[in-house]
Specification:
Number of strands of chain B: 2
Strand content of chain A: under 5%
Number of helices of chain A: 0
Oligomer: heterodimer
Largest sheet of chain B: 2 strands, antiparallel
Number of helices of chain B: 9
Number of domains of chain B: 1
Shape of chain B: globular
Helix content of chain A: under 10%
Structural class of chain B: mainly alpha
Strand order of the largest sheet of chain B: 1-2
Distance between the termini of chain A: 23 Å
Distance between the termini of chain B: 43 Å
Radius of gyration of chain B: 17 Å
Shape of chain A: rod-shaped
Radius of gyration of chain A: 8 Å
């Protein structure tokens, strides 16, 4: 489960 | 951050400056698809909503603010300031064919089924195809002003540079973002025809004209 996805790209 | 992503982001910034510059020097938005620009506003608003709860870096924060505000400003230029120069009869691509399927795809293929993730995924899919109304418009007119082609080239280079960035990140960090990668490859692929004409004509000093 990837409940905490961080999107660090623009 | 790596050099590919940085150059990609700079190309993205450059594309926006070129577009705004084009409208100011020609005092017109001729050849620019309002629909594509409106889709970019939607892309940035849905993707960068995390401004309010996720902190990445000052770079990330300031770029997000810039992309949201500049896309709104461009929409203002096209829709109000230079409206008399906009020809809606050339900008006829049906955006609902893009927005609807992207939303459905985002509901199906996402990393996590929650509000912010679905909006992020939607924005990634929508960005991949947001250029369609613009390309469709050029297809209809069969030509484009040189400065408009520079804008599109910078925009295409931006997403193309993200591809080596993902390869680099895979080898150095082990990170893989399949949604961004697949959508990014599709997005870059849409520019291939354009790039061919850009390189073989515009960069040789000729006008951008499509074969009849």
């Amino acid at each position: 489960d990837e409940g905490n996805v961080v999107h660090d790209e623009l | 951050m790596n050099v590919f992503r940085l150059l990609g982001d700079l190309a993205h910034l450059a594309s926006i400056f070129i577009l705004v510059h084009k409208m100011h020097i020609t005092r017109s938005c001729r050849g620019i698809s309002f629909k594509t620009q409106a889709l970019y506003v939607l892309v940035f608003l849905t993707r960068y909503l995390d401004l309010f709860w996720a902190w990445i870096s000052w770079y990330n924060f300031l770029m997000k603010i810039f992309f949201i505000s500049s896309s709104c400003y461009i929409l203002y230029l096209v829709h109000y300031r230079f409206r008399p120069t906009y020809d809606p009869s050339l900008d006829t691509f049906k955006v609902e064919y893009l927005v609807g399927p992207c939303f459905v795809l985002a509901l199906i293929f996402n990393y996590h089924f929650d509000f912010s993730e679905i909006l992020w995924t939607f924005s990634i899919y929508l960005e991949a195809v947001a250029i369609f109304p613009q390309l469709f418009m050029m297809q209809r007119t069969g030509e484009a002003e040189t400065i408009t082609t520079h804008y599109l080239a910078a925009l295409g280079v931006y997403r193309a540079l993200y591809i080596p960035n993902w390869i680099y990140r895979y080898y150095t960090e082990g990170t893989v973002d399949p949604i961004a990668i697949v959508a990014g490859i599709v997005q870059t692929g849409l520019y291939l025809d354009f790039f061919y004409v850009y390189v073989t004509k515009v960069l040789q000093g000729q006008k951008f004209e499509l074969p009849a």
